[in-house]
Amino acid sequence: MKNFFILLFSSVCISLGLNLFVLPTHIINGGVFGISLIIKYIWGIKVGHIMLIINTPIYLLSFSYSKKYFTNAILGLVFTSTAIDLLAPLNGLFHLPIITSAILGGVIIGIGVGIMLRNHISPGGVDLLALLFGKTLNVNPGIIFFY
Fold it and tell me: Residues 2-26, buried b or exposed e (16+ Cβ, 10 A)?
């Protein structure tokens, strides 16, 4: 039950940061989120759907490495993708300067991703790779992100 609430809270944080601050100002994130945003801006496809498609090879890698990480990552991706698409109507609710939107969006998304990573859950992409490499190398995933 604890993981459910962690997933729900983290996914909503990521979704709010994305829909309230990143998408309205057309800011680009890094990693799979960034690629998903570029595709959304160009072709208008929902970010959650794009994330599911792009993450498939990374999930296959995690499945071969650890069933627990794979299961947690699938749950993280499903919750996050669903929350992003469900909260899409919030896009454009605030009209803030780009720098303010970038800071607020980054902080809120960072809180969501950080809580997930702290509990060995991942919304996918580079986050999942950092968890896998961190476990393999016995290093904190945050250090992997830094490099």
Answer: eeeebbeebbbbbbbbbbbbbbbbe
Q: CA 143, CA 147: separation in Å to the nearest integer? A: 6
Alpha carbon distances (Å) from 109 to 14, 22, 62, 118, 135: 4, 10, 23, 14, 23
CA 139, 140, 144, 147 dihedral sign is negative
**Model-wide pTM > 0.90:** no
For the segment 87-113, what is each residue's pLDDT rounded down to a tens digit? 999 988 888 999 999 999 999 999 998
Domain boundaries, given as residue ranges, for the chain = 2-146
Measuring CA to CA, which residue among 36, 13, 10, 8 is closest to residue 23? Answer: 36
Q: Residues 128, 131, 135, CA angle at the centre, nearest 5°?
A: 145
